């Protein structure tokens, strides 16, 4: 436990910050859990179609030709979308990542467009 002094009505009181620390730790844990859950859901939503398509192709042993090729093309774009979703999820949930990301993006934009 950490202790701090607080002046109340002319008197100095020593109080513990243990409760606030626990609340802050619990809040951070919940926040991190939400972020990880979002990343896992995004990963599964983007990779399940590929898994299903590959299992279907192996089980049926059929070459569906044009249709399976077009479907796989769309599925691979979903995999790429997952690569875009990860930094977006980090940006949404992490304040320091967001500040750093925005700073670096603004450096890449030419200065006449943005007044600094």
Please explain how this structure is put together.
The chain is mainly α and 116 residues long. It contains three helices and two strands. The chain has helices at 18-60, 66-93, 95-108; strands at 3-8, 11-16. A two-stranded antiparallel sheet has the order 1-2.
Average pLDDT level = 77
Unreliable residue runs: 1-5
Strand order of the largest sheet: 1-2
Dominant shape: flat
Q: What class would the helix/strand composition place it in?
A: mainly alpha
SSE map:
Blueprint: E1 3-8, E2 11-16, H1 18-60, H2 66-93, H3 95-108
Antiparallel strand pairs: 1-2
Helix pairs in contact: 1-2, 2-3
Summarize the structure.
By secondary structure, this protein is mainly alpha-helical.
Any key phrases for this structure?
116 residues, mainly alpha, 73% helix
């Amino acid at each position: 436990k950490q202790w701090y002094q607080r002046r109340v009505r002319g008197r100095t009181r020593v109080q513990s910050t243990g409760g606030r620390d626990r609340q802050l730790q619990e809040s951070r844990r919940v926040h991190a859990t939400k972020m990880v859950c979002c990343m896992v859901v995004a990963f599964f939503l983007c990779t399940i179609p590929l898994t299903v398509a590959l299992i279907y192709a192996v089980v049926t042993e059929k070459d569906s030709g044009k249709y399976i090729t077009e479907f796989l093309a769309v599925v691979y774009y979903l995999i790429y979308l997952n690569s875009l979703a990860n930094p977006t999820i980090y940006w949404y949930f992490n304040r320091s990542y967001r500040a750093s990301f925005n700073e670096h993006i603004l450096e890449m934009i030419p200065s006449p467009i943005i007044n600094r």
